Amino acid sequence: MRVYFTSEAPCALRLGGAIAGFCSRHEQFADIPEGERVLAEFFPENAELMPLSFLLDGAFFEAPPSFCEVYRYGCGANVHIKRFSARRKGLKPLSQLRAGNTLATLYEDGGLQLCIECGNEFYAAPLPFSVTGCTWKELAGGILAAEGKTQDEEIYLALFSGAKPLFAGEVLSYSGGERIKTVRAFHDAPGHTAESVWNFSGGQLRLESYSVREREGFSAQALDERLIPFAFFQTVLARGEFAKYLSPALAPRAREVAQYLGGFTGVCVPPSVFYMAHGNVNAAGLVYPEKENLFRIRFFAAPLEQGKIANIVPVGEEGDDG
Q: What is the rounded average pLDDT of the residues 202-210?
């Protein structure tokens, strides 16, 4: 099985006691015999971070630990290290905000952490490793917002009602009044951005309206034919006008197409081992959550007729190792 390794922090990678190269958001891979247990060790370039190690075995791939995410597919797997522990320990308060009977605290303890106390309720969680700073704000309706900055210069936003989490994710911008508005970037080929308007009622954030638009000047007709399937799947994910990519015979069935693809949460380029297993197939990988920290990637080809998608065909379904 070929395993690809990536990491939020640049690292030296050691497998089975031997240096296997370096990885960061750029991958490093290794071929691991089926059934073999291999010790994987990550040594961050940043000396303030602790090394990290674990056994690559069946148990790991079935229930990944919280510091990583695993993406499985028939011919391999991707392992992404999303969090490291800091060498320097000790609780260091950074900021607090009191709103009514709610106390929100941001502190550092081997990384940025937040906690909220509200009456007898309590919430605590680490912030994503990519968040470099954070502040508290109070929005209308008593909603508390933890606003951080990510390494990609986006806003990390977490919203709470008392100690109850309402929303967490990266946004380009947000505003809070009687309605909360968020703008999200998909970072895809069509340059989709989505504006969501949320209404807070009954202790819940309810989506009131959603609109998506493409990057100014983007033209699906001008795309290289090899990129059309990717732009199509990305548009389905963004809930944009994807029917324009479909052939005249398939376009009337656009709703069925979306239901057939199901609840995928990402679109990716297949890894090199996919082409070794299945040949020169123009396919895209769709990412489906399975359970905590574990995802399944399914590959789909989208053959074209006169520049339009005429069919959607699964390639290398689960259990097919090529």
A: 91
Cα distance between residue 124 and residue 172, in whole Å: 25
180: left (phi over 0), alpha (psi -120 to 50) or beta: beta
* CA 300/CA 225 separation, integer angstroms: 15
Query: Among the residues of the chain, which ranges form H helices?
Result: 58-62, 228-238, 254-261, 272-278
DSSP letter at 8?
A: S
Alpha-carbon gap, residue 25 to 27, rounded angstroms: 6
pLDDT digits (tens, 9 = 90+) for 48-66: 999 999 999 999 999 999 9
Per-residue pLDDT reduced to its tens digit, 251-310: 999 999 999 999 999 999 999 999 999 999 999 999 999 999 999 999 999 999 999 999
Could you give the 3-state DSSP secondary structure of residue 142? helix
What is the structure's pLDDT at 34? 83
Q: How confident is the model at residue 317 (pLDDT cuts 50, 70, 90)?
A: low
Other Cβ atoms less than 10 A from the Cβ of 95: the count is 13
Q: How far apart are CA 122 and CA 116, in angstroms?
A: 6
**Tell me, what's the pLDDT at 320?**
47
- Cα distance between residue 304 and residue 311, in whole Å: 7
CA distances from residue 76 to 52, 60, 304 in whole angstroms, order as listed: 22, 14, 28
C-alpha distance from residue 46 to each of 8, 43, 274, 283 (Å): 12, 9, 33, 37
